[in-house]
């Protein structure tokens, strides 16, 4: 079986990429997502791309899938009814939560506190207690627990979470409760905190375990359905950018809450590093939302928290920030303020923007791009024909609401506002983290990203703006070219004066063996695995930690402390030099090799892109109409320079090059957009 298949499910489109591992040739398909049952859109896309490649599904060796099933279950509140077992005295751990309220001034007055994922009436207390050193303070009362579990079964719970105090030090009581639950609640999936998150802090450990249980039944059903229909090995992209087997993902679905965005970051790193830019900002604009991330030296920043809606859990994920700004984001003019707003509401895939002709009437970002002349007459390789008159009629409602002189001016206003919204997200991962965006390239992808990329380059000062090959399906490419990954962690609170270099090396050696064993079980030889190490550090007395990378080959506690100081200075602009450093948690991650896919490079074609010219069209840009040249990206060759204003079309996306800018075609196929002065 010579083919690998990457699948990414978005809010509007499902992207499928089929790769011939021998030749490196790829085939793409884009089909509308089916929110009621994502597998329908996935299987339709797989059949479509196999037909385009002249092969069959049976020739596909592996399917690598970025999915939003777990994410949507959280956002839509459609997860399982969860029962929770806590240590006696901690029944209201989810209700107490953390004393933090999002929002600005007076947010505590107007913010509606979300309901916990496990209701208080479905929470029971186990009579037990483990000390902070792992000793048994109070033995587990099994008879009492059995009665309480039967009560939860009578109340109709669909999943069970177990989170006991200090179980990250010793998991014996949680293991026993899981065994008892299997007897008393047969068929009910059980999540225990010592496996989901073996780290300190009872609230974070509990909410993460409950979230795992909340999405587990739905994810398990989906993966079982997909595996059954595909009858081949299915892998799921994790939030941290690695792959997990379908059974592993079903057991730990909280690790895939940001599965979709992580695939895009992985694909962007591949494209940018091939073009010679290891430092980059990623900008993934789809139909519903925009995801952004920062990559330094070819390595995405991995955060220790994952946030979906109001839910924040402790789970490793690529540090992606999301805003409700996509091609389907709806523009509206509130009656009270008469100020134009865009998003976060989205027309999604059904009915979609007015231009799709599927019954949508609300003005969207896609409709604005149609009115401005930036989009061709068809999208997704002819899958969707655009209705320009419907788009104008929808945007005219904004024109009337704001009182602008023309429909084009209203459309330009929609684009300006959505661009500012996305700029805010890019600043969150750069400026707010102590990075200057001008030191990075900007990689734009997703179905709508290349249309807005040049404008975001101007706003951020990040050059060049890189448009990878097949930007609309880059997330699927990231899925298809990612290796297996697993990590092991342990809370190990010690001041540096209480540690030795050898002791820390030994700790990491134990953790590495755990991670390596997981990948070996999946058929990845030890020699092919790459190990990375991290430590959560703080100054003694602080209530939070900072994660830093650990170089185990040249390890010493002094260099580790220096690395922490550098990061603390970058984030907060001060150091606590009188406070001793303290280790809180240690982690080791094992990563399998990325699949070998033969890259394809473009033949040299000189600077003149005349062979790729399709036509000219009238667009509205910078407050006036002008003529723009339309190019067929498939006919561009290495070295071609496309001067703006120009539109570059391809099956899965459209790129806009603004006046005063030019796009140079890199031999790898990426378009590198820069201001003309810099290009010269």
Describe the structure.
With 680 residues, the chain is of the alpha+beta class. The protein has four domains: 1-235, no CATH class; 295-439, no CATH class; 485-591, Dna Ligase, domain 1 (2-Layer Sandwich); 610-679, no CATH class. Strands 13, 14, 15, 20, 25, 26, 33, 36 and 37 form a nine-stranded mixed β-sheet that branches. The protein has a six-stranded mixed β-sheet with strand order 3-2-1-4-11-12. Strands 6-5-9-10 form a four-stranded parallel β-sheet, with helices on both faces. Helix 10 (259-274) packs across helix 15, helix 11 packs across helix 12 (388-402) and helix 13 (407-429) crosses helix 14 (449-460). The longest helix is centred in the N-terminal third of the chain and has 29 residues, at 202-230.
């Amino acid at each position: 079986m010579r083919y690998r298949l990457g699948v990414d499910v978005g809010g509007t489109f499902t992207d499928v990429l089929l790769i011939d591992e021998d030749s490196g040739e790829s085939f793409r398909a884009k089909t509308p997502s089916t929110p009621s049952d994502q597998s329908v859109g996935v299987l339709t896309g797989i059949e479509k791309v196999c037909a385009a490649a002249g092969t069959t599904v049976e020739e596909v060796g592996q399917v690598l899938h970025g999915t939003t099933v777990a994410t949507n279950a959280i956002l839509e509140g459609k997860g399982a009814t969860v029962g929770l077992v806590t240590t006696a005295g901690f029944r209201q751990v989810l209700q107490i939560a953390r004393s933090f309220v999002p929002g600005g001034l007076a947010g505590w007055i107007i913010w509606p506190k979300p309901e916990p994922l496990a209701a208080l009436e479905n929470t029971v207390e186990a009579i037990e207690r483990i000390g902070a050193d792992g000793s048994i303070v109070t033995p587990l009362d099994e008879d009492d627990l059995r009665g309480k579990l039967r009560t939860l079964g009578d109340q109709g719970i669909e999943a069970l979470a177990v989170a006991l105090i200090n179980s990250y030090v010793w998991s014996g009581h949680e293991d026993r409760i899981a065994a008892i639950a299997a007897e008393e609640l047969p068929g009910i999936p059980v999540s225990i905190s010592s496996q989901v998150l073996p780290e300190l802090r009872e609230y974070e450990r509990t909410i993460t375990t409950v979230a795992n249980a909340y999405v587990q039944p739905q994810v398990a059903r989906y993966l079982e359905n997909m595996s059954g229909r595909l009858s081949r090995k299915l892998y799921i992209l994790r939030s941290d950018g690695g792959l997990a087997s379908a059974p592993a993902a079903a057991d730990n679905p909280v690790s895939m809450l940001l599965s979709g965005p992580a695939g895009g970051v992985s694909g962007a790193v591949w494209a940018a590093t091939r073009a010679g830019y290891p430092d980059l900002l990623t900008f993934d604009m789809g139909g519903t939302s925009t995801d952004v991330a920062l990559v330094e030296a070819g390595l995405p920043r991995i955060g220790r928290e994952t946030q979906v809606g109001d839910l924040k859990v402790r789970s490793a994920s690529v540090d992606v920030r999301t805003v409700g700004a996509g091609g389907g984001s709806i523009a509206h003019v509130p009656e009270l303020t008469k100020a134009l707003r865009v998003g976060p509401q989205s027309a999604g895939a059904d009915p979609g923007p007015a231009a799709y002709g599927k019954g949508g009437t609300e003005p969207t970002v896609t409709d604005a791009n149609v009115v401005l002349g930036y989009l061709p007459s068809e999208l997704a390789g002819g899958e969707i024909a655009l209705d320009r008159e419907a788009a104008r009629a929808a945007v005219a409602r904004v024109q009337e609401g704001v009182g602008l002189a023309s429909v084009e001016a209203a459309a330009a206003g929609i684009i300006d506002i959505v661009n500012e919204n996305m700029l805010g997200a890019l600043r969150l991962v750069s400026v707010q983290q102590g990075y200057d965006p001008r030191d990075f390239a900007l990689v734009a992808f997703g179905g709508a990203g290349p249309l807005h990329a040049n404008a975001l380059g101007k706003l951020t000062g990040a050059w060049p703006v890189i448009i990878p090959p097949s930007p609309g399906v880059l997330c699927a490419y990231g899925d298809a070219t990612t290796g297996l990954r697993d990590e092991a962690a342990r809370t190990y609170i010690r001041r540096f004066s209480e540690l030795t270099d050898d002791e820390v090396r030994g700790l990491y050696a134990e953790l590495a063996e755990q991670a390596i064993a997981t990948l070996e079980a999946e058929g990845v030889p030890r020699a092919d695995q790459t190990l990375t190490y991290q430590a959560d550090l703080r100054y003694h007395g602080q209530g939070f930690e900072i994660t830093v990378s650990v170089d185990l080959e040249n390890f010493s506690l002094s260099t580790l402390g220096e690395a922490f100081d550098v990061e603390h200075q970058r984030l907060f602009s001060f150091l606590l030099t009188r406070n001793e450093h303290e280790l809180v948690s240690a982690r080791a991650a094992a990563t399998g090799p990325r699949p070998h896919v033969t890259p394809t490079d473009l033949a040299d074609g000189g600077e003149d892109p005349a062979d790729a010219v399709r036509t000219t069209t009238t667009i509205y840009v910078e407050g006036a109409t002008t003529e723009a040249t339309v190019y067929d990206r498939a006919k561009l060759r290495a070295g071609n320079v496309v001067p703006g204003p120009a539109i570059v079309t391809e099956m899965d996306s459209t790129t806009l090059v603004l006046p005063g800018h030019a796009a140079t075609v890199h031999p790898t196929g990426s378009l590198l957009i820069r201001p003309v002065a810099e290009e010269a």
